Amino acid sequence: MKILITGAAGFIGFHLSKKLLDQSYQIIGESKFVDYDNLKETMEYIYGFLDFLYFITDDYLSS
What we know:
Number of helices: 2
Distance between the termini: 32 Å
Largest sheet: 3 strands, parallel
Number of domains: 1
Number of strands: 3
Radius of gyration: 11 Å
Strand content: 15-25%
Strand order of the largest sheet: 1-2-3
Helix content: 25-40%
């Protein structure tokens, strides 16, 4: 099952994503204040996982 998590780079969203990934869900993470490359490096280095299906970074309120 695919799940969209908004604010996935925040504390709660990040840990929720990790828990759901551990239970074999596919995650589409969204956060407007994150540089994808830095997030990817952080997740791989500190937490050891890169199992997001997609990660969307955008500021939807700027337009």
